[in-house]
Amino acid sequence: MKKLIGAAMMALVAGAVQAQDTQVALDRIDRDAAKNAELAKSIWTFAEVGYLETKSSALLQKQLKDAGFKIEAGVAGIPTAFTATWGSGGPVIGVLGEFDALPGINQADVPTRQPVPGKSAGHACGHHLFGVASASAAIAVKDWLQKTGAKGTIRFYGTPAEEGGAGKVYLVRDGLFKDVDIALHWHPGSENSADIETTNANKSGKFRFKGVSAHAAGAPERGRSALDGVEAMNMMANMMREHLPQESRMHYVITSGGSTPNVVPDYAEVFYYMRNPDPEIVRDSFDRLVKASEGAALGTGTTVEHEVIHGINSLLPNRYLQNIVHANMTKVGGVKYSAADTAFAQKLLPSLDTKRTLAEATQIDPLSESHGAGSTDVGDVSYTVPTAGFSTATWVPGTAAHSWQAVAAGGTPIGFQGMQNAAKILALTAIELYQNPDHIVAAKAEFDQRRGPNFVYKSLLGDRKPPLDYRVNKTPGGE
Fold first, then answer.
1. Are residues 285 and 165 part of one domain?
2. Tell me, what DSSP letter sits at residue 243?
């Protein structure tokens, strides 16, 4: 009995010491709150799109460099991608950080629809918060490693162009995660959850048709409409939907269709996404889409070429790691609104068409399994190293990603509070992994089991180089 009591007391003392140690990291995140909010608001204002996030990347690099991290910029052939490393030896824990905005949507930081004149993009997915929280967590973990003398390396990955550019895939392909034991990530959202989640694999491509221009009234017989090629392809693709697996998703947007009705357009472009949980089905479906484009060109007297823009694998979950993340999320708690936050949210709520309540921002969702219909290039990381993630309530409950409401809340203290919570969850999780190497062993065992004994990583991108200009208008004569 005495031995049992003694062991229990030792465990309590050890737990108290660990809690005291982690306070160093939490205090650093709290101390940096104002600076983090300022940094996130700057990136929110820049709203730079994929592979063009020059100022956003530079700000994050400076924050980490000033904190003592070694910066390696321009990794994987991408000017805005970088790593920031502190420490030596193992375990090596990687923290992912994004910072690209979405084109075609923008909004002021107010609770009613108010686009910003002259602005062509916005942080409708909250990546301005993502990168800053992850960097703040990495700095806090560095402080903990430094104070405790614990062995290990913390590495921040500055990963651009998540929105359709597959930035992380190029980092994976270049072997930048080979020495990493565990990778952690998070994402802005309208709730606090750490689900054991899978996602869809996704492959996208731009199909560019070329024809012959002519006067649409005076000499139509001399023209061959590139837009006809696009429309014929779209018609065949929509008929193809019936014959795709039920879980598949296909969507497109015509990015160039001509300038005026009285000129037969000699150039047109359509941008397609193809999704399914199984990457092999995505490969096959995309190949069928290519054949549809070739048939459309043949039938309209035009020519077509396509460029694969991005390809990402589905997310491989890790239950063991998600349990640890969820426990730390529960310790940190949800987002607590101030009176000003509540007033903002109440004005925003009518535009959401939701039955969700503001109280949900304070709550932690139960740990559960789910499948997300969207896609993320974190998927390729998760097939390379055991990976865990979560989301915090950086938006008003009920807000959809890629909406003006997400842009609005993300530029206010509502978003900044969720960001601070995310930084703490990341830091606590990383520290727990350093303190308990058995966690890493168990996570790797599950990782190996889920991948299977004969797993060979394959990128859906093939050997293409990063599409650094995929957000640049390629219409002839365009800017």
1. no
2. G
